[in-house]
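Thread: Newbie trying to understand structure tokens

Hi all, I'm a second-year student working on a class project, and my supervisor (Dr. K.) asked me to get a predicted structure for one chain before our next meeting. I've only ever worked with sequences, so writing a 3D structure as a token string is new to me. If someone could post the tokens and maybe explain what I'm looking at, I'd be very grateful. Here's the chain:
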Amino acid sequence: MKRTSVRATVLAAITGLAMTVLGLPAEAAPGPAVHRAADTPAKAKAVSGYWTAEAMRSAIPLDKLLQAPRGVLKDVAKGLGTVIPQSVPNGGGAWTGGGKVTKTAGRVFFTFNGRKASCSGDAVTSTNGSVVVTAGHCVKYQGTWHTDWVFVPGYDNGNAPYGQWTASKTLTTPQWEASEDMNYDVGMAVVNQLDGKRLTDVVGAQGIAFNQARNQTMYTFGYPAAAPYDGTKLIYCSGPTITDFLLTQDHGMGCNMTGGSSGGPWFLNFDEATGTGVQASVNSFGYTFLPNYMFGPYFGADAQTLYGKAQAG
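---
Reply by user tm_fold:
Sure, no problem. This is what the structure looks like when written as tokens:
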């Protein structure tokens, strides 16, 4: 088969485990893209009231609402190695180990094109104590920023044991903003205080890492809501990782998580006893012809700049 035919076949076969929309790389990309969300008490109250237990249960995994890819990508810019501190292998199953991850990881809910949708996210250490890391397509897609955006840490079948945290603003990388380049499918949110408290004062925070060595053992978590999962439980995978050799430079791991897990954290140096690690990627996409494999973007220099912008907000 000719190279062009192979490439066309690959492009046609990709689907969104987390969204698999590909775009042409941005030229001379600007800084992180920012969207103002529930940035007043009145707006935050309205968004919280919108997400009832039934509304959260009925939210559709965003991946079911997405379209097919359309392009090729280039490598991710790498900066200086940086770590902000804070059962192998497993191809997918409910997390029963407890620890901090059961509080920092959670479901993300928002409105996309008039429909209730869901992803996953994680609270990380930050200067403002209010940063949630997720996927880029979980904050913006097809030129539209999602609305009614909330983070529910420790989500439990419609229950919000640690509250619903509305976003005052959501952010993404300039490459995702400009062309939905899957190498840069990283999003973040700055959430409002709840009852006078900051997010990480309530649920704690995981560390976050940038520009780290590839092909290490990692753990990934999320709330997949498409069959065989239903979005009610925190699911995890763990094992050695590879670097995608097809259309991106993403991390890859054997994992059967499905739609709704998008934006869930990937950890380096994860400690099962304490449920802690340093986050170095998010659940992003999967290939239809490579079942039970998940891919997540490399946290390079642009993800680090995005984090700097978010924690200063």
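A couple of things are worth pointing out once you decode it. The longest strand covers residues 115-123. Residues 135 and 263 are 4 Å apart (CA to CA). Feel free to ask follow-ups in this thread.
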